[in-house]
Write a structure and sequence with these properties.
180 residues; 4 helices; eight-stranded antiparallel sheet
Length: 180
Amino acid sequence: MLLVGLTLASCGNKNKTPDTKSTEVVNKNATQENLGDLYQYYHANPTTLDQKDENTLIEYAADKNISAVKTRSGVYIETHLEGNGEQVKWGDKISVDYKGYTLDGNEFDSSYDRGEPITFRVGNMNAGWNEALPYLKRGTKATFLIPSHMGYGKKGFPGYIDPDTNIAFDVHVLEETASE
């Protein structure tokens, strides 16, 4: 239950609702040959960690043919299945099944492996989750690509996630909240 242990210590982004006006479609048909709008965010000469992280996420998305929406803070969201439930809001109690992994494919946590979803209030997770979840409806399946500063930052999580590591989560926001 690594995610639970890491969430409260790394909370951030206290906005109550997503800034959908600054949400931008990154690319609907990302391929190596046709990257389209994806590279509008690419930094030719990255100097900061945030710029390097963004380039890494763009390269990963292009390599994996990921079509995503970019949030204001740089989290990329790929929706696999749009849910039919209510829009997730800040403070909502929700249940989520998830798998967390580094971009090289190393899984570090999974509710599926434990056989039960995680239940929490939106706003009590890492900054990447806090920003991405209000873009989803209950029932949605999505992938979050999270830059290191929105994940576990400079501290990482010793033994699981190195410092300054970009991470990804495959998430399924369940229609119903599981009992605790």
